[in-house]
User: Which sequence fits this backbone?
């Protein structure tokens, strides 16, 4: 498939190797991209989304507690790098196909890339369990989710960030991915 057919401009085999987050991008990506939203406003904020995608255990369980099953949930059964049995029990009851990938902190592996890309494009509900760290999956989800989808991810000690997938957010995610070390 040519890169022109992909909404983010990446060819289907990208990446061939792990992408590594350079130190100079860590602070930039730690800042919220999208709108910070409180839990009480979340349901109204995502109403009408073409697809709802969550990255992180707290975000996923928050939606489940609101009675909303995300179309794609990416999680690692950890909250701020500590095992979170409560999220595990809650997420395991969620419907959807379970895919497991290995993805170390500060990287996007080809396995993570393919799992999130394929699930973001699919109409089927999918749960991507990450052995390692899932934070950078939001970039892949933004790059590949359809226009009108909403990506929700947590900002530790700040709240929930909601990103509308559109040309601007896709350009941001694509540029960030292109800056990662190959």
Assistant:
């Amino acid at each position: 498939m040519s890169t022109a057919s992909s909404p983010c401009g990446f060819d289907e085999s990208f990446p061939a190797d792990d992408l590594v987050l350079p130190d100079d991008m860590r602070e930039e990506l730690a800042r919220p991209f999208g709108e910070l939203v409180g839990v009480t406003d979340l349901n109204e904020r995502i109403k009408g989304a073409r697809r709802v995608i969550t990255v992180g255990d707290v975000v996923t369980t928050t939606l489940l507690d609101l009675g909303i099953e995300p179309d794609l949930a990416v999680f690692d059964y950890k909250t701020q790098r500590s095992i979170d049995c409560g999220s595990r029990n809650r997420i395991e009851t969620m419907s959807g196909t379970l895919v497991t990938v290995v993805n170390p902190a500060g990287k996007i592996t080809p396995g993570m890339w393919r799992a999130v890309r394929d699930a973001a494009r699919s109409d089927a509900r999918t749960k991507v369990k990450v052995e390692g760290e899932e934070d950078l999956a939001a970039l892949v989800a933004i790059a590949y989710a359809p226009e009108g989808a909403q990506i929700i991810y947590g900002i530790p000690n700040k709240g929930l960030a909601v990103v509308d997938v559109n040309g601007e957010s896709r350009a941001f995610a694509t540029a960030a991915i292109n800056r990662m070390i190959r």
User: Anything to note?
Assistant: Helices lie at 23-30, 39-46, 57-65, 85-92, 110-121, 137-144, 167-179. The chain has seven helices and eleven strands.
